[in-house]
């Protein structure tokens, strides 16, 4: 879920598989996504869903200036089941009327020469803000179809939904642990 972050330094990019030019990037919503997976019925099986409305900005610069902010509209949840989507939007889970967005703001990043590392930041969900750390991988960098500079990352991690006040059905209906994956493609501005 939401989500991911990427405060990346130019020096870190130089060591990554494909160098990324410093500058401001905007998240390309058509080529980015936030996904979640949770254990159903206390872990009998795994259930997946996604959010279809993701936006945000990346700044690639020196470490103290690099950052990412991601906003996900909770109303855009998509479980591929209309009835379940309605329940997930209710106060039992995301409470989309009271909390229409969830956000991530980065606080730091570490990438090795292979473009792998971690990113820390603050995740706000249901009005609760908690520090989180995600694994981070640079997928690639290059020119888009119109010659624009693009860069891609994947951030993955696990949170406990009860940390954010999402207590419904734990652990019988769904596990407390939620695996998150955020795919980001940024376009240089």
From TrEMBL:
It holds the Pfam family YceI. Residues 24-187 form the Lipid/polyisoprenoid-binding YceI-like domain. This is Lipid/polyisoprenoid-binding YceI-like domain-containing protein. It comes from Ramlibacter tataouinensis.
